[in-house]
Amino acid sequence: MAITEETKSTAAQPAAPPRRRGVRGLIRTLEVDTRLLSMVAALLVIWIGFHILSGGTFLTPRNLWNLSVQTSVVAIMATGMVLIIVSRNIDLSVGSMLGVVAMVMALLQAEILPDILGFGHPAIWIIALVAGVVVGALIGLFQGFIVAYVGVPAFIVTLGGLLVWRGFAWASASGRTVAPMDRTFQLLGGGSRGTIGGTASWIVAGLACLGIVYVLLNGRRQRRRFGFNLRPIWAEVTIGAIGSASVLAAVWFLNRYYMPENVARAYAEDNGIAWPEGGLDIPLGLAIPVLIAIGTAIVMTFVANRRRFGRYVFAIGGNPEAAALGGIKTLRTTMMTFMLMGALVGVASAVQVARLNAATSGLGTLAELYVIAAAVIGGTSFAGGIGTIPGAVLGALVMQSLQSGMVLLGVDAPLQDIVVGIVLVAAVSVDVYFRRRAER
Amino acid sequence: MREGTPLVEMRDMNVSFGGVHAVRDVSIDLYPGEILGLVGGNGAGKSTLVKTLSGAQKADSGQIYIDGKPVSITSPRDAKALGVETIYQTLALAENIDAPANMFLGRELTSRWGNLDDGAMEDAARKVMGRLNPAFENFKVPVESLSGGQRQAVAIAKAVQFNARIMIMDEPTAALGPAETEQVRALMRQLKQEGIGIILISHDIHDVFDLADRISVMLQGRLVGTVDRKDVTMDEVLAMIIIGKLPEEVTTTELEQLHG
Q1: Shortest Cα distance from B42 to chain A (angstroms)?
Q2: Exposed, middle or buried by CB within 10 Å (0-12, 13-18, 19+), for A51?
Q3: Alpha-carbon torsion B146, B151, B153, B154, what sign?
Q4: CB–CB of A41/A367 below 8 Å?
Q5: Beta strand B166-170 pairing with B197-201
Q6: Which of A15, A6, A26, A30 is nearest to A229 (CA)?
Q7: Å from B88 to nearest chain A CA?
Q8: Taking CB atoms and an 8 Å limit, are A226 and B92 in contact across chains?
Q9: Torsions phi, psi of B223, nearest 5?
Q10: How distant, in Å, are the alpha carbons of B29, B68, B194, B205 from that of B6?
Q11: Which parts of chain A sit beneath pLDDT 50?
């Protein structure tokens, strides 16, 4: 009954895989994503390159801490853009949506809610945040409905959205800048108050390590349950060790960014600590927006890989007809990807507004381009069906690293744009080249 | 061999696309353990007819009976719930995902909280595939990297996995080499022995003669007729396909002209 040239194994359950040698064999045994690995390598090259060019100012706790905060907004939205592009659509309206949602949240906090609840009411930040996410989701749902059920191409719908929502952002406050935000809400943006401190950061790192171990153990348990091939123990340990070490190293490094002196003084006063001669080194710890971005990425990865919805999004991207014939409600799924995108824009908008402590009507202009670029640099294919959430987050980090590195080097703004544009096209060219080669 | 209630009976089916009457008043039936060959030239309406059974195309009029009971099939989901599985010419596989995910597409196995249980799906896929094609080992790669025969095996395994009673196969061997074709034929005989009814759509008259118990011929949207394979010659079936005449109507000269 041999249907193909394959004759190596005739048992239903696989025999142990043949041993492979060299780097390729190592990667195969560890079962790591080579694309992701090469992106991490590219990121390290960029970082080290800027570090050398800038005379040692790039790889500093301060710079990387700022980089992490600056990446958050684009990273949060890029996780949603992956699913949109994977299902063969596009959303050009995210920047304008961010603007109008920002206005909604800002007006609620600065003008509407204080009049109703009183200034500084503890519920204000929650109401504003929830309202922002809901408005984002509704806008996404509306656009998704037109794309899926009316059948207008997503490019057109969201191009219209780009104009419409920006117009609403202007109209809602007649072009004014709306400020200030609620004090609790501001924490969402990071800044010197919006961090969790050194100790809590170590706790987060510890939990992350436990999480890595849990994922590895769970994977092993699943494979054993059905008698599939198990990864060798040394491979599991290696992956766990590298993963945990990376987390711990990142937190250790970022925890070396200390509070600026005036903030530290205020902190010492508040906590009754005597101000010593040489000042106090109090770690700021991880910024709240960074935690929001990481949390979003984890949830979205889970949705993409372990939920029916995510599976359907990929199936639609791979073969829309097959998905429909499989009984998948493709139109509904498409609409939901836009709604999810809108909700994520709401979250990103909250971070952005909180960070600026204000909403301007131009907020988020051109953000769509950075978000799409992040997803694409992260390996998402416009042909549909291919893309990963961690890739998009890394893509966002690459984009932000380039920009902040060039700022450090004092590169002019026009030249920055030129470089970013070239890198975008070059990254995709390399990706396309390797993908073609893999097909042969 | 045909006794009792037919597994499927399609009565007076009609489908039009705009002004084109793709299927006109066609009635066919299928019995358990039978392979019904459905043949005809391009645009004869074969695929459109079976799509009304698989839920991919809405009929304008006509009634489908399964086990003698009238049923309403308006979506692929309805058809599957009635035990009708379709193996499409294009195979209907999502190229970017792996074999188990394709086999369970739209009917995923989930664990608590509704999370996908990829382990259980891979396990089930390995079991079915072990029966159909023991050499198959590529459970973890996107199906785009599989050969034509392997993809066909995935498509058939999908139908078997869900206990299909009625299987529609649209040109199942069109894209395959000789060895792979023989594999698929063997598979079809095995399915037939398990009591599954198969509607086989094919251009390849040899395929049909080799496998089918009865042959239904369509021409320009109409059913020319249904004949028992044992009672007809290949030329007589060709005459039905090309000039639309039943074996008793066709003249010797016309039969000779077929080869001219």
Answers
A1: 21
A2: middle
A3: positive
A4: no
A5: parallel
A6: A15
A7: 9
A8: no
A9: -85, 120
A10: 6, 7, 16, 25
A11: 1-17
Q: Is A249 helix (H, G, I), strand (E, B) or coil?
A: helix
Q: What is the mean pLDDT of residues B228-243?
A: 90
The crossing angle, in degrees rounded to 10, of helices A389-408 and A288-306 is 150
When the pLDDT of each residue in chain B is averaged and rounded to a whole number, the result is: 88
> ipTM of this predicted complex?
0.83
* CA distance linking residue A401 with residue A398, whole number of Å: 5
Q: State both tokens at A380.
A: 């998402």
Query: Span B30-58, mean pLDDT?
Result: 92
Beta bridge partners of A181: none
B56 close contact with A: CB closer than 8 A: yes
In the three-class reduction of DSSP (H, G, I as helix; E, B as strand; rest coil), residue B216 is classed as strand
- For residue B95, the chain A residues in CB contact (below 8 A) are 318-319, 385
Query: Is B107 part of the contact surface with chain A (CB cutoff 8 Å)?
Result: yes
- Token couple for B27: 């009635």
Q: Which of B86, B102, B127 sits opposite A12 (nearest CB)?
A: B127
Q: Is B92 on the interface with A (CB under 8 A)?
A: yes
Name residue, tokens 């909604």. Answer: A104
Residue with tokens 């200034």: A119
DSSP sequence for B154-213? HHHHHHHHTT-SEEEEESTTTT--HHHHHHHHHHHHHHHHTT-EEEEE-S-HHHHHHH-S
Distance CA A332, CA A91 (A): 17
How do strand B35-39 and strand B214-219 relate by DSSP bridges?
Answer: parallel
List the one residue out of B182, B178, B183 whose CA is nearest residue B157.
Answer: B183
Select the highest-mean-pLDDT range: A294-303, B121-130, B204-213: A294-303
Exposure string over B67-80, b if 16+ CB within 10 A, otherwise e: eeeebebebbbebb
- Chain-chain contact of A8 with B92 (C-beta, under 8 angstroms): no
* A137/A143 Cα distance (integer angstroms): 10
The three-state secondary structure class of B120 is helix
Out of A225, A228, A319, closest to residue B93 by CB: A319
The fraction of chain A above a pLDDT of 70, given in percent, is 95
Helices (H), A3-60: 22-30, 34-53
